[in-house]
Amino acid sequence: MDLEVSPALTIPASELGWRFSRSSGPGGQHVNTSDSRVELSWNVAGSAALSDGQRLLLLARLGRHLVAGVITVTASERRSQLRNREIALGAWVGSRSVA
């Protein structure tokens, strides 16, 4: 599923990287048995979805949050991997620093 960050920016699903691991958040014993922690990453520096102007603007705005041109959002607030995925996506859509 593509991620519409703003009317001017839609990130193709193929450019989004998902990684899942065990969470230390709420859930008791459930936490130790499922990969509910979510990391969502996007290579800003190498994205084909951005114009050169958009890329330069994002690299400048997100500079301190980038590692090798990649931004990563982590969510582990909920027990459910699905809910944490929604939280990670929402963090980008709700952030004007990416739009």
UniProtKB/TrEMBL annotation:
InterPro entries membership: Pep_chain_release_fac_I (IPR000352), Pep_chain_release_fac_I_sf (IPR045853)
Protein name, as recorded: Prokaryotic-type class I peptide chain release factors domain-containing protein
Pfam entry (one): RF-1
A molecular-function term among this protein's GO annotations: translation release factor activity
A single BP term in Gene Ontology: rescue of stalled ribosome
Location of the Prokaryotic-type class I peptide chain release factors domain: 9-89
Domain of life per record: Bacteria
Family per record: Belongs to the prokaryotic/mitochondrial release factor family.
